[in-house]
Design goal:
The complex is a heterodimer of chains A (67) and B (258). Chain A is mainly β and 67 residues long. Chain A is built from one helix and five strands. Classes of the chains: A mainly beta (67), B alpha/beta (258). Strand 5 of chain A pairs antiparallel with strand 4 of chain B, so a sheet runs across the interface.
């Protein structure tokens, strides 16, 4: 199926979870990272259990330098 | 009077300077600037992940044992700001948020309508909300009324370094505030920070003034001293400004030479 991850179209397996997406982005260090699925926060504890659906919009954010 | 701590939402801080981390050329420079500034609170932003970027700014903040204050920079609507604040809370395990809701990218001025709406929602959701606001006394009061833990009026536009353009409004905001007033945005150099503190601000937030200075570490030290000096001057109570001279030497006993 197709989902949007950080603004890019991605093809993932039908059983993909939020955790799979975080891995897909090759995040070395998951500290300071949070995920929104269709503008709803997905708590870290449920990353491995929340399955994605076709057309989902996923945002994976991290803390960076900023004013 | 010896304990002159800054208190925000019940938490005490010795330093009255908050450092915005945006604009630093490297983490090493940022690290040195944080140390030289003596700050205890630093801001960070939330952005899409890059493979190598995660954690690094946090390492710098943790090494300096500062409290991390995430912001909602880049948000133009209350909805986006609220979602960003919730993401920051989840990512950084803090319910403190520097709320920014910007009206347009050329001025980066706050959108007052969206700002109050976002502040209200976040306070209801248990956040300690520190809103970046215009230098508008009425808006500052509205933000306090919805439960913000501080108000952060601008001195002039973000990154402009134009100092405090409306000291009259800032004074009114300070006089009527029941929460700490933190001067946010517009600081260009140390004297701007001193003026903010002399006007009665509880603290100053500086980012570009320090991180984009030719020598960020040195400017961090300069602003640290300016904040301390301005605070002391405010507490000391300045003399009134007058048009004509008031002699400081006694007029009695002046010799009469003939």
């Amino acid at each position: 199926m197709n989902v949007q991850v950080n603004g890019e179209e991605r093809r993932v397996i039908d059983s993909a979870t939020v955790d799979d997406i975080v891995r897909l982005l090759m995040v070395q260090d998951a500290r300071g990272i949070a995920v929104a699925r269709n503008s709803e926060i997905v708590l870290r504890a449920s990353w491995t259990t929340v399955r994605l659906e076709e057309g989902d919009h996923i945002e994976v954010l991290q803390a960076v330098q900023g004013g | 009077m010896n304990d002159d701590s800054l208190v925000i939402a019940g938490e005490r801080f010795t330093s009255r300077l908050i450092l915005g981390t945006g604009g630093a050329p490297s983490h090493e420079v940022l690290q040195r600037a944080i140390t030289a500034s003596g700050c205890e609170i630093v801001t960070v932003a939330m952005r899409r992940v890059t493979p190598d970027g995660a954690g690094s700014v946090l390492d710098t903040v943790v090494r300096a044992s500062c409290r991390v204050l995430p912001n909602t920079a880049g948000c133009y609507t209350a909805r986006d700001a609220v979602t960003t604040a919730r993401l920051a809370r989840e990512a950084l395990q803090t319910n403190w948020i520097k709320l920014e809701v910007i009206a347009d990218e050329r001025t980066l001025l706050p959108d007052p309508i969206e700002l109050v709406s976002a502040a209200e929602q976040l306070v209801d959701d248990g956040f300690v909300v520190l809103p970046y606001t215009n230098d508008d006394p009425v808006l500052a009061e509205r933000l306090q009324r919805v439960g913000c833990a501080a108000v952060m009026p601008l001195g002039s536009p973000i990154g402009s370094g134009a100092g405090i353009r409306n000291p009259y409004n800032l004074r009114i905001i300070v006089e009527r505030a029941t929460v700490p007033v933190v001067l946010d945005a517009g600081i260009g150099t140390a004297s701007d920070a001193a003026i903010a503190m002399e006007l009665g601000c509880a603290a100053v937030l500086a980012a570009s003034a320090i991180t984009r200075a030719e020598d960020p570490e040195l400017m961090a030290e300069a602003v640290r001293h300016a904040v301390i000096a301005g605070r002391l001057a405010h507490r000391a109570g300045r003399i009134p400004q007058r048009t004509y001279a008031v002699e400081s030497t006694p007029s009695q006993g002046v010799a009469d030479f003939r």
